[in-house]
Structure formats: C-alpha cells, structure tokens
Design brief:
single chain, 9 helices, 8 strands, globular
Length: about 290
C-alpha cells in the first residue's frame, strides 16, 4: 500500500495503490465530496487479494489533493470527470477496470465514452444514468427525507473543531442508509480518517456542489461499449433501484446485482463478500480490447 502525490496537467492529486502492479488494474472513483478514504482500506485489500491492482484517489477539494478555498472551486465538473485520465497517465496504467460510486459512477460512464481505450470494464454502484436513455419513463425521485437533507441542510459545524466535524459527517450519512442498518461505528472510523487527512473539510463538503459544469458531454447509454456490472442497493433513497435497473437495461449486455437492504452508500462490511466476489468475477471476464 503506497500513497503518493502526482501532478498531471498542473493538477495535483493524491493516489494510493494496493496489490501487485503486475495484476489487472482497478480504479475506484468516489462520490461527490468524498475522499478516497470512503473506500475502506480493508475493502481495497480484499479486492487486491482477488488478483487486482487497486488504486483509489482523492478528488480535487478532498483529502490531500489540491484544494480551493471553500465556496470558490477553481475547476469544473468536466475537470473532475477527466481526472481519472490524469491518474491513470501518472501511474502509467494503460487501461483499468473502473469502479464508480454515485457521482463516481457518472464519471465512469463519461470515461467509457470519452476514453474507451482506457476502460476495460465498468462497475457502477449506487448511481444513475448520466447518458440518454431510449426508455423515456421518468425514474423515481429521491426519498422525501433525502430531499429535506438537501433543501434544509444542517448548520455548519465549527470547522476547526475536529470532533464536531466528525459528528457532522457521521450525521450527514445517516439518512442515506437502507434497511440493512446504519453502521455508525464503522462510519465514524471512516469519517475520522477523512477529517484527519483532509486539507480543508469545509471545501470538501461545499465545493463540488457549486462547481460549474464546464464542457457538456451528451451521449447515449447504448453507446457504452465495455462490459458493465451494476451494483445497486434495494433501499437507495437518493437513486431508487429503478435507476440501477435502467442502467442495466440501457447499456448493452450489462448485468444488475441488487444489494439487499443497502441504501445510497459505500458498500458496508456486511456486503463486502458479495461485492468483492462480484467485482472479481466481472473483471476476470473482461479483457483488454
């Protein structure tokens, strides 16, 4: 396990790798506002034990990657969507199996369209279609409790008070859990690492939401041409299960594995057996084109 800073196109990103560089590469992409720490190191090690070279990285304004002042992001959504290319280029990885969560799943879809030569396969977790669908049926909206989270956010903590910020992050995740339950002890351990590693947690929490879109990329899901696995919680309150079903229906030859009881979250330890096994099998069937 090694952590390092890489700079490509003048962008400084923090990355960490697990496993043997000679094994097929897997790139993990976090959701909005999320540092790479939300991919639990033990989860990464278990995936590496499947014979994969697992890399995770901090988005801009998260963890130890470059950071703008809170409220003043110096990048666009398109910049975030193309940072995986910078990571792979910096690590001299010619192509990777890409695993994206939530916003990271949207980034993964863009990557498969914009840079298909870099993508050996997609695994899309707790995310929604980023491209055009042939089925025009409206997908279900977020649960009211999550809508209230966004429309009436909790007051800011004292950003200089470590414990208060950890509590703020832990509480922010509570409404996104499913019937599997909210593992507060595990979430607190992750949030504590996030706070201790981050250059500016306030910027992490705020800046992704207000960044300009930048270049708009319009595409059809049917044009994604890499093997795709969709992992989606049956109790996802942000993107209900039909969002995952739509991805599997629209992307050619994609498959869907519902994760019973999971909400909108990084797969918790109770689901690691099925998630790691599923990604391992999926990536073993996918070969470089």
């Amino acid at each position: 396990m090694t952590e390092e800073h890489v700079t490509v196109d003048g962008v400084e990103l923090c990355v960490e790798a697990f496993g043997d560089p000679e094994d097929p590469a897997v790139l993990l992409i976090s959701g909005a506002t999320a540092a790479m720490d939300w991919w639990d190191p033990e989860f990464c090690r278990r995936l590496a034990a499947e014979g994969r070279y697992v890399t995770r990285y901090d988005h801009r304004d998260t963890g130890r990657s470059e950071t703008s002042p809170a409220g003043q992001p110096s990048y666009t959504g398109y910049d975030l969507a193309t940072d995986p290319v910078r990571v792979l280029n910096a690590l001299d990885i010619p192509s990777a199996h890409v695993v994206g969560l939530s916003m990271g799943g949207g980034i993964a879809q863009y990557l498969a369209i914009l840079h298909p030569q870099l993508v050996r396969s997609l695994t899309l977790i707790a995310t929604s279609p980023a491209g055009l669908r042939t089925d025009q049926t409206e997908l279900p909206r977020m649960d009211p409790r999550v809508a209230a989270f966004f429309s009436n956010p909790a007051p800011d903590p004292d950003w200089n008070d470590r414990d208060a910020v950890v509590n703020y992050l832990v509480d922010a995740e509570r409404d996104f859990a499913g019937s599997l339950g909210y593992d507060e002890e595990w979430m607190r351990s992750l949030a504590t690492v996030v706070v201790d590693r981050s250059r500016d947690v306030e910027a992490s929490v705020k800046n992704h939401w207000i960044a300009d879109e930048g270049r708009h990329v319009e595409f059809r899901l049917a044009d994604i041409g890499v093997p795709t696995l969709v992992l989606h919680g049956t109790d996802d309150p942000l993107f209900p299960l039909p969002h995952g079903e739509a991805l599997a229906a629209e992307i050619p030859d994609a498959s869907l594995i519902p994760l019973e009881g999971m909400g909108h979250q990084v797969p918790p330890p109770a689901l690691w057996d099925v998630v790691v096994s599923s990604i391992g099998k999926h990536t073993s069937r996918s070969t470089t084109r």
